[in-house]
Amino acid sequence: MELNVVNIQGQETGRKVQLPDAVFGIEPNDHAIYLDVKQYLANNRQGTHKSKERAEIAGSTRKIKKQKGTGTARAGSVKSPVFRGGGRVFGPQPRDYRFKLNKKLKQLARKSALAYKAKNNAIVVVEDFQMESPKTKEFVNIRKNLNVEGKSSLVVVKDLDRNVYLSSRNVPKSEVATTAALNTYSIMKAQSLVLAESSVEEIAQLFNA
To answer: pTM of the entire structure?
Structure first.
């Protein structure tokens, strides 16, 4: 797949970039995408949720009524789960939600996500650019020139420019990532993928194209 390279004013530079078919032209694997996104979200969970069981509740240990003769169910503790303020049965406990996936499967998932963007013509290739200082307004204008304003977009660069990152941080629906940090979740979440010219070759190398 061949795309025109534009500058940050949205004008064509006359150069073209070939997106390697080994990455952008494969048949997407939906299940690989599902597993990789599931792992990404699971790995981001803190897992610090906690509820108290009956042994952890602060309360009297006195037997609250006699065992027999009351006509109701026997009860021995106010900390019982059947009473208000008692412990919780099988409540959430701190745990690690992370799980492992094979490297080749994760690679297939990322390639599948990129292939979907190529199929939907949702990729823009822009020449490498830098910003002299962090300016949100300037970054907003760049998005407007590239026709991705109002859409969720992911700008992929080879090396992260601090000023570009700071300029994009307060822009809604905008994310900047390096090729090394590219993940399936971010690619699929973005409606438009903006690739810096030098990042295309880097992506091809990372995915062994």
So the answer is: 0.82
